[in-house]
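Final report, Chapter 2: Outcomes

The project's central promise was a pipeline that accepts a single protein chain and returns its three-dimensional structure in a standardized token representation, suitable for archiving and comparison. That pipeline is now operational. To close this chapter, we reproduce one record exactly as it appears in the project archive, with the input sequence first and the structure output second.
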Amino acid sequence: MCEQGKSLDLSARNAVFLEKIPVDILEEVVDIYIGSVEIMRPETSTT
């Protein structure tokens, strides 16, 4: 899943700006992306 970030190389894909999206949609997209590449650490006991 981490390799998917490479597809966001906008200059390599000759991307062009079309329109802005609402902030709430952008926040949801960013949240989903971060969640998909986040490394989960096992909980450690403090006792």
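Archive annotation: Residues 23-37 form the longest helix (15 residues).
This record, like all others produced under the grant, will remain available to the consortium after the project formally closes.
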